[in-house]
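In full, the data.
>
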Amino acid sequence: MLPSAPGKSLSSWISELDNPGKLSHLCIDFFLEEVGSALAALHLERIYLDPTNSDIRKLRTCIHGDLHSNNIFFDLKMLQVTFIDSAGIGASWLDPKSPELDFFLMIRSLQMEISSKELKYLKFSRMCEAFFKGYKSKVPAFLHPSIDEVISDFTALSSRVTPKLSLSSEH
């Protein structure tokens, strides 16, 4: 039997926003930055960084493959992110994939969290910015423009699929 992940799922942390005084939006921003940073570390684990290829979508690496808010745990005491249900990591170790898949899964998960919990006051754009800020803090700067393009692509897709949760909404 596997040991349990330390802390609580990201979904549980987001749910606590319904309880006034328990958790602030700044905490969620911090958690999401840490998740982005941890995901970048995973992606950088097995990647050949070639400065002549600055498009993150063309890179192939180890990905989670089932990234969503119930598979991400954050331990507030240790300030530690743990990814669970990680069978996709092993599979992608043998058959590397684009990090873009994990980005899509993460963004979609945040959309679903906000919609399912009817957290209309929670700014989707702010959550995404925190996640990508953490991610970009760990990857080489030459990849940042292509990550910004991915964000832009998700903005366009997000605004067509769920207009009220657009990445480009104001803070």
